[in-house]
Amino acid sequence: MTDSAVLPGSDQVAVMLKGGRVTVLRDRWNEHANEWIAWVRAPGNPDSYGRFHRKHFMELVPEAGRLTLDIGCGEGRVARDLQADGHKVLGVDWSPAMCQAAATHPDKPMRVVVGDAAKLPLPDAAADCVVAFMSLQDIDDLAGALKEIARVLDDEKKLALAIVHPMYSTGKFSPTENSNVDFVVKRSYFQSRLCISEHSHGDLKITFFREHRPLATYVQALLSAGFYIEQLLEVTDDDEGSARHRVPMFLDILATRRPREKEVGWPNRPGIISRLPGCSILARSRGAGNLELLRRGRSYSRRVSPIAFSGVVLFGLLAAAAIAFFTAY
Ligand SMILES: C[S@@+](CC[C@H](N)C(=O)[O-])C[C@H]1O[C@@H](n2cnc3c(N)ncnc32)[C@H](O)[C@@H]1O
């Protein structure tokens, strides 16, 4: 154990395990769901989504397709906006209270399912777009959630995500003698940690539960889950008079799911596998007269005449022998 904090209003201790995994965030969000719902639904609420963030994020979201998943959908504000843009949205959230609010919205009830982002209740490749707006920093198992998102996304389809910028979550503004505000970093940027912050606006109060993680943690988790990063935006308050305008508050990323590697099953299947010299194509005989080619993770079957088939095999053997001969001498 490297760190712990007593959660406000409860005697529970949030435990940060070695390696930076926090194990409590999802349940805290369910306990505080009513605060969140009141906060984001209050007319004129100070939340950044309506003020400036929505317009930047929506520019990243791809065209509507068969199914768009909203991971950590909360009470459904992003899902409702996407639906209005023509997306067929399914929201997923661990919190039953959030899901109920989304599903019973008075004007635009949403389709939602209660579930953990790290164990999505959906089949492989079911979605052709996933959004995760302001949820991944609140999810205990980031790597598990991204792996699950990659599993349910179809090949070459996209994930649009927005998180609190790791630079923003590592420090905070403090008043100074000149009535200016300094952005102060007191703890290591590089160490993941639980962050609990309380905010108020008029009668509204809200507690945020999230994990600060350095940028590399997000990038590595995306790459390991099988994503390319296509676009990255650093978003901040539009209000130039605000001290926040000087620092990035949010990080928005558009990532593409790499095509599934079809060659994974190959070694277990019969046939001679050879790499054709000088190119990235793998070829495998699938019985006389049937040649299967694998290029960039996609497999193509070709019926060829027995003479052509023998020619390809002979060519491969000769090329291999020639390469072996010239490298040996
Ligand atoms: C800050 S709220 C954002 C909600 C919504 N995306 C929005 O912007 O209005 C974070 C949400 O993530 C959800 N969440 C936290 N951990 C989760 C998990 N493991 N699986 C699914 N949802 C989770 C919370 O219940 C909460 O609704």
How many domain modules?
2
Report on the biggest sheet: 7 strands, mixed
How many β-strand runs? 17
Note the total helix count: 9
- Unreliable runs, pLDDT <50, ≥5 residues? 6-13, 263-281
SSE arrangement, N to C: EEHHHEHEHEEHEHEEEEHEEEEEEH
CATH class of the largest domain: Alpha Beta
- Inertia-based shape: globular
Associated small molecules: S-adenosylmethionine
N-end to C-end Cα span = 58 Å
Q: Would you give an account of this structure?
A:
- The protein has two domains: 24-257, Vaccinia Virus protein VP39 (Rossmann fold, 3-Layer(aba) Sandwich), CATH 3.40.50.150; 261-328, no CATH class.
- Helices cover 29% and strands 31% of the residues.
- The chain contains nine helices and 17 strands.
- The protein has helices spanning 25-31, 33-41, 48-60, 77-84, 96-103, 142-152, 166-170, 215-225, 306-328; strands at 3-6, 13-16, 68-71, 89-93, 112-114, 127-133, 153-164, 172-175, 181-184, 193-201, 204-212, 227-235, 250-257, 273-275, 281-285, 290-295, 298-303.
- β1 (3-6) and β2 (13-16) form a beta hairpin.
- α6 (142-152) packs parallel to α8 (215-225).
- The chain is globular and about 80 Å long.
- S-adenosylmethionine is lined by residues 25-26, 29-30, 40, 72-74, 77-78, 93-95, 98, 116-118, 133-135, 138-140.
Summarize the structure.
This protein is an alpha/beta fold and 329 residues long.
Helix/strand layout:
Layout: E1 3-6, E2 13-16, H1 25-31, H2 33-41, H3 48-60, E3 68-71, H4 77-84, E4 89-93, H5 96-103, E5 112-114, E6 127-133, H6 142-152, E7 153-164, H7 166-170, E8 172-175, E9 181-184, E10 193-201, E11 204-212, H8 215-225, E12 227-235, E13 250-257, E14 273-275, E15 281-285, E16 290-295, E17 298-303, H9 306-328
Parallel strand pairs: 3-4, 3-6, 4-5, 6-7
Antiparallel strand pairs: 1-2, 7-13, 8-9, 10-11, 12-13, 14-15, 15-16, 16-17
The structure holds S-adenosylmethionine.
